[in-house]
Amino acid sequence: MTDSHALLHQAERQCQQRGVRFTPIRRRVLEMIADTPGSLKAYDLLDRLAAEHASARPPTVYRALEFLIDQGLVHRIESLNAYVACPCPEHAHGFQLLICRLCGRVEELHLDEVNAQLFRRARELGFCVERQTIELLGHCEACHGAAPAF
Q1: Residues 6+ away with beta carbon under 8 Å from 8
Q2: Which residues span the domain enclosing 53?
């Protein structure tokens, strides 16, 4: 779990510097994601948001998520179809996610050399990368003893 207060403050500064609107709904969606250990699915977000705002509908949540992803404040976990707050949105480069299958904990890595190798090889093959997602599923140190042996 990230420090949501610091993350929200940083998000406000970043949006102000970029000249984009950090609306109350966008702020609340980010706060809900940041306050959740692990990741959060869009419909879980919608349920929580609807409890506070009767007018909240799926497009409301998806638009907020799209904005937060575009601003680098949230990552979509493709394999889980869920979202997690970015603990360091100032890092503009690619990232990798370690996802614990048992407790749902998500750790973000910034192995720039991995990204550089991938992009270099893609260029060599004439491929233009638009987006990347690197997810490593397994179990965290805390769950190591509870993980089934393979």
Answers
A1: 27, 30, 31, 34
A2: 4-85
